[in-house]
Design a protein that fits this description.
Distance between the termini: 138 Å
Number of helices: 2
Helix content: 10-25%
Largest sheet: 6 strands, antiparallel
Radius of gyration: 37 Å
Length: about 240
């Protein structure tokens, strides 16, 4: 064999074949495209799964927050109404003890919603240290329209010291509670008669209601309700 033949490139022969093939490295374009398609499918499934889980968590948090807020509101309003106090002997010459509930409505988009209000003197005041306050104070709940007209805000008013110079429904400090309440409805039932009425005024009726129904509807679509029994019987004149 000549010296030049030793440097000739060797050919790979396939078994049973007579021809020669070159050794192949890497992937073909078709294989790459198939792999990319498979990965894209996996990523899409994973993203959809994470998106659904995130949305479920977000919805659960909204429901939880709504439930917490509704529970707090109902507890606060119920406590004020349960401990309502009315004494006609204190209402001379000016009315300073009262439970005055009004049926009120507001236009929200294309629907009319209940936005009731209530003013009540109640024994729920936590007296501030060093003040001349008593447990009896005046509390009010009502709604105000937002400045931009986009909705309503539920308000609370507190008057810590009762005085004949500031009759019931006047004075005190007001602050916002929430703008999440879409509807607030109160109904009243007199003592000895389970007959619901949309309004109540101790000045004209001469008595406190025995039961009050409280219903909240929030912008989350949830509705919460409870029945409250008024504990304090008014003294006889």
């Amino acid at each position: 064999m000549s010296r030049s033949s030793e440097h000739m490139p060797r050919l790979m022969r396939t078994p049973g074949g007579s021809g020669a093939t070159e050794e192949r490295n890497g992937f073909t374009l078709l294989e790459v495209l198939i792999a990319v398609a498979i990965m894209a499918g996996i990523v899409t499934v994973l993203y959809a799964s994470f998106f659904t889980s995130g949305r479920n968590v977000e919805q659960a948090e909204i429901i939880r927050d709504s439930s917490d807020m509704a529970r707090t509101l109902i507890q606060k309003v119920s406590s004020d109404i349960t401990n309502a106090y009315w004494n006609p002997r204190m209402n001379r010459p000016a009315v300073i003890t009262v439970l005055n509930g009004k049926k009120e409505e507001a236009q929200i988009k294309d629907a009319v919603s209940r936005h009731d209000s209530i003013t009540v003197t109640t024994l729920t005041n936590s007296r501030r240290f060093g003040s001349r306050e008593t447990e009896l104070w005046e509390v009010g709940y009502y709604f105000k329209q937002k400045a931009d007209g986009s909705g309503y805000v539920m308000m609370r008013r507190e008057k810590r010291e009762l005085s004949k110079d500031t009759p019931a429904g006047e004075g005190g400090v007001e602050y916002e509670i929430t703008d999440k309440v879409q509807s607030f409805q109160l109904r009243y039932s007199p003592a000895g008669a389970f007959a619901w009425q949309d309004e109540w005024n101790t000045t004209t009726r001469g008595a406190l209601p025995q039961f009050v129904e409280v219903v909240f509807s929030l912008d989350s679509g949830m509705t919460y309700s409870t029945y409250v029994e008024v504990r304090n019987l008014p003294p006889q004149s």
